[in-house]
Specification:
Radius of gyration: 17 Å
Number of domains: 2
Structural class: alpha+beta
Strand content: 25-35%
Number of helices: 3
Helix content: 10-25%
Mean pLDDT: 86
CATH topology of the largest domain: Alpha-Beta Plaits
Strand order of the largest sheet: 2-3-1-5-4-9-10
Number of strands: 10
CATH class of the largest domain: Alpha Beta
CATH architecture of the largest domain: 2-Layer Sandwich
Low-confidence stretches: 120-126, 174-187
Length: about 210
């Protein structure tokens, strides 16, 4: 079964774009499920998010991902600044790169540590050490995954996030890299949206 992970990013956009990222993730999940696909956020959505990873699997996953890759526009009033005149907000959607496709990103440079996962507010502590911290030793970049059901799955996601962070660092040309965040993408391309949505219900606009 084909599985693709899409990366939804607000880029350098304001809080409204982060809100759009979270709502778009929910909208894509609804569309994916309607098309017979399994679609779910890799990590829980708790509110506006600069970056979201969306797991899509099923026979039509590749076509679905291709149709939604690019700049997405949401048309609507700011949910935070009602008097703001801007009506068009943009976020980016790209397939998450495979770690093996990123130059100089080597498995032997990664140190994995297991730790005890915890729920919101420190409650519902997981009794097993299923969370995983991945550290890229040469650069000091660190990611953590704790929301998957198994240590193996958390390791996979932590490695994926680390690969994305490493790739962003290389593109930004940051020697130290510690200031980079995996959700900080380059500026989004405006005015060339592959899909548009409008209103609080995120209705697709033809």
């Amino acid at each position: 079964m084909t599985e693709i992970i899409l990366h939804l990013s607000a880029g350098q956009g304001p809080r409204e774009c982060e809100w759009v990222v979270a709502e778009l993730a929910r909208a894509l999940c609804r569309e994916g499920e309607a098309a017979g696909l399994t679609c779910e956020p890799v990590e829980p959505l708790a509110g506006p998010a600069a970056s979201v990873l969306l797991r899509i699997s099923g026979a039509g996953a590749e076509g679905f991902a291709t149709a939604h890759t690019g700049t997405i526009r949401w048309i609507g009033a700011s949910p935070f600044r009602p008097l703001h005149k801007r009506r068009n907000w943009f976020v980016g959607v790209t397939p998450a790169p495979l770690a093996d496709e990123i130059p100089d990103f080597r498995e032997e440079d990664i140190r994995y540590q297991t730790l005890r996962a915890s729920g919101p507010g420190g409650q519902h502590v997981n009794k097993t050490d299923s969370a995983v911290r991945a550290t890229h030793v040469p650069t000091g970049l660190v990611t953590v995954s704790q929301d998957q059901r198994s240590q193996f799955a958390n390791k996979k996601i932590a490695r994926l996030k680390l690969a994305m962070l490493f790739g962003e660092q290389r593109r930004a040309g940051e020697a130290g890299g510690k200031r980079a965040l995996w959700g900080q993408n380059r500026e989004l391309e405006r005015g060339n949206a592959v899909r548009s949505y409008e209103g609080s219900g995120f209705r697709p606009r033809s």
